[in-house]
Each structure stands twice: as C-alpha cells, then as structure tokens.
Amino acid sequence: MGKGDSRIPAPSSQNKGAGNTAPILKTEEIYERPDLGASVQPNFNPNQVNKNAKIVPASIYIVQAGDGLYAVEAKTGASFADIAAANDLTMPYILKIGQRLQIPAGTYHRVNSGETGIAIARAYGVKWADIVAMNNLQEPFSLRIGQRLKLPNMAALGNGNSDDLSPEQRANAFNINIDDIVTGGEAASVDYEPSTPKNNVSLATPVAKPASFTGLFTWPLRGELLASFGSKGGGKVNDGINIGAAAGTKIAVAAPGTVVYAGNEIAVFGGLVLVDHGSGYVTAYGHLGQISVNRGDRLSAGDILGNVGSTGYVGAPQLHFEIRKDRVPIDPIGKLPKI
C-alpha cells in the first residue's frame, strides 16, 4: 500500500466501485434486523433462564464428612469462588471435618443446563460485564450446571416480570457487545469439557474451540480502507478497521477457527460473525448482508462466511473487521500481510 493510498488492491471486478466515503453513523434511525439467510434465530433468550436468585445471609458453615467445596456451595447457596476467597482457600481446596467456613453474604443465581451468561444477565436486567467482574470469571468463561453466580442485590432484580424493569435495566439487559458474546455466549455444561461441534450447534451445547493458533492471518477481502483502528476523537474508538467493498462481495475467514457466534443482536454491527482461533485470538466480521455459516462450524483459512452488506449503523456497504487477543482489540493492520 503506497503512502497516502487507502486502497487495498482488489483481486476481481466485484470489489471495484467502493466509495471513499467514511462510515456514516445512523444513530437517529431505527435499526431493523435484516434477513441474513443463515440460522440467526434470536440467541440468549432470557425466557430460557430459571430465575432462582436467592439472598444468602452471612453465616458460619461447619464442614461435615464427605464435604468438598462444591458440596458447600450447593448447601449454602454462596458461590464456590466467594467461599474460597472468604476463607483464603487455594487449590486443591482440602477441607477438614469440623472446619468453620465463613459464608459470605450475597445474591446468587444457580446456573441451570443450557443457560448462557448473557441470557442470565438479560433475565435479571443487569450487564453481563458486571457479573463477570463480580465473580472474577476467567478464560474460558465456561459456566457449570449448579454453579452460583453472584448478582447485584435483589432490590435491582424485580420479581421476574420484565415490565417491572426500569428503562435503564431494560437497556442493560439487551445491550450486548462483542466482549459479552466472547465471555457469556457459551451454555452451561456439567463440566468444562465442550462437545465436538457440528453444523448449527445448539445454543445449549458448548462449542469446542481450537486449542492453539499460530497467529497468522490473511485479509478477509480487498477493498477501500474506510476507517483505521484506534481513537477517532470525541471519545469515539474503532476497535477494528472498516473496508469498503461492493454489496455482495464474499468475505473469507482470516484464519482457521470455529464459529462461536453468527447473528445480528448487536445493532451497531448488524450481521455479525465471531470466529475463535484458539490461543486467545478471536476475529469479528460485522455489517454482513448475508451470513453463510452457523455456530459451531469449523473453518479453514479462506472459507467464505458471508458477504458484504450495509447492516447496522453504516450508510454504505463495508466490512467491520476486528482481531482480539485475550479479549483486547488489536490493530488488524499489524497482523495482516503487507500489500
């Protein structure tokens, strides 16, 4: 790419004609969910969550014969992690009969089969990011059936009817971003071993993700570089790059990986695909006009995952492309081949 030249050389005529207009934010317009052509049924439905949150008072628990920390979690209703932290317990969490354990106070939800973190957050009208922080959840962010998740206090939770939520709570419940999907998009399982993926894996089934990745990426398409990575002033930040191309231009996955999300629930991005490549790398492809992959699909570098559209908050056909390492966005230009 020459100095001052923002055009990524196009390999075919289908990529020609992309304008040099910067993305137009349409924040005043009503976003309509497009028909993207693949199985993009509404995900993370709060109605799939059994709202069982209970207030657990601070107390002392006396360890009984046969008790492990998971058993204490089940008996008291407080989370495994909170009990361990309150008592300075470390792996392998050995308990002794008669040991006195401090049980911390809190409001806890018991995770049930098939529930995702995002659905749980939506059910209670809170931000999933807040639950992640409160529970100090770490990679790979897998939920365990029977696990207790600490929530904000019950005063903010309502009685289970969405009509009881304030406008702010409703916004929290249905405002999700890419990081929320990465950390809260997997369904709870009995243990932390995911199943082998197949086409269109159910949201109630964890997706098996690649174990490792070399970190080598290829361009998902060629076109006009409309927006670069980083701060744009006025508090605006682009977590990726935007590449203009003709509507319908095919988009290739930038590296081998597994599709962990294919849908349109983040309004600003419209049609969105997330691919996990292992080793903490995730790529995002936004504003798709059509999605041709399903959650759970295993892709090789260059496989087509959809085509360019103008869905979401843009006024011209383009691809929003991100690379994230350990949940942190990095500049894709530094990871893509120089052309």
From TrEMBL:
Domain LysM: residue ranges: 59-103, 107-151
Protein name in the entry: LysM domain-containing protein
GO MF entries: metalloendopeptidase activity
One Pfam family, short name: LysM
Superkingdom of the source species: Bacteria
InterPro entries: Cell_wall_metabolism_enzyme (IPR050570), Dup_hybrid_motif (IPR011055), LysM (IPR018392), LysM_dom_sf (IPR036779), M23ase_b-sheet_dom (IPR016047)
SUPFAM superfamilies reported in the protein's UniProt record: Duplicated hybrid motif, LysM domain
PANTHER family per UniProt: MUREIN HYDROLASE ACTIVATOR ENVC (PTHR21666:SF270), PEPTIDASE-RELATED (PTHR21666)
Region (Disordered): 1-24
